[in-house]
Design goal:
The protein is an all-alpha fold and 105 residues long. It has three helices and no strands.
Length: 105
């Protein structure tokens, strides 16, 4: 026997997931800001304090790879996947109920 109805469990899991996702989005914001700061620091690096050939070579290798996504695109992707995850949880719950009703009749 279940201690709680499945709908209550689904609601609790949905709320906990949403809280986790919200906090994770905050961390993604910080990471995106750090990536742009690193990119700016590399672009503004003063080549007069280091051997110019080494500095130029490092910049040519690194700069093309440093293309961080904007926070807006990260947020849209994250929120969309979170909503779809919660929708999938509820779809499974509704399917389980429908199957139980079909078996009862």
């Amino acid at each position: 026997m279940r201690k709680q109805p499945a709908a209550v469990t689904t609601a609790i899991v949905s709320i906990l997931f949403a809280l986790f996702a919200f906090k994770n989005l905050d961390a993604m914001h910080d990471t995106t800001a750090q990536r742009f700061a690193v990119l700016d620091a590399i672009k503004q690096y003063d080549t007069t304090t280091a051997p110019a050939a080494v500095s130029k070579q490092v910049r040519e290798l690194l700069e093309p790879t440093l293309t961080p996504a904007t926070y807006g695109s990260v947020k849209i992707t994250h929120v969309t996947s979170d909503i779809l995850t919660i929708a999938a949880l509820w779809a499974m719950e509704l399917r389980r109920r429908r199957l139980r009703q079909d078996q009862a009749t």
